[in-house]
Design a protein that fits this description.
single chain; about 110 residues; alpha+beta; four-stranded antiparallel β-sheet; two-stranded antiparallel ribbon; 3 helices; about 25% helix; about 35% strand
Length: about 110
């Protein structure tokens, strides 16, 4: 079991969801977050001088998947979020030690989906 965490541009969320649904990945948690990457926040020009802005709005997706869904999930996120511009986001894949479905008590891969 893996936890796929993706940080993406908010305006790409619908495209990412469409791509995930196409590979039968429907269960996710979506959170609005703030952050900065290489672009170090928004850069604005004010009275001819560059000013670095604050943190940027991003969307975080948390998706727990079984091993056979890891690569299709990554590929779908990449396809939906990719624009080729700086700030498209990141995908992290971490080991998921345990998953427990509260309603039934199921554990492991059965509890994911």
């Amino acid at each position: 079991m893996k936890l796929v965490i993706a940080i993406i541009q908010p305006h790409r969320l619908d495209a990412v969801k469409t791509e995930l649904e196409a590979v039968q990945v429907n269960l996710m948690t979506v959170t609005n977050v703030l952050g900065q990457g290489r672009q170090k926040g928004v850069t604005e020009i004010y009275r001819g001088a560059k000013e670095a802005g604050g943190l940027l709005n991003k969307v975080r997706l948390d998706i727990a998947v079984n091993e056979d869904f890891v690569n299709p999930t990554i590929d779908a996120i990449f396809k939906g979020a990719h624009t080729g511009s700086l700030g498209d986001g990141k995908i992290f894949v971490v080991e998921l030690a345990e998953c427990i479905r509260i309603s039934s008590g199921e554990r492991g891969g059965c509890a994911i989906g």
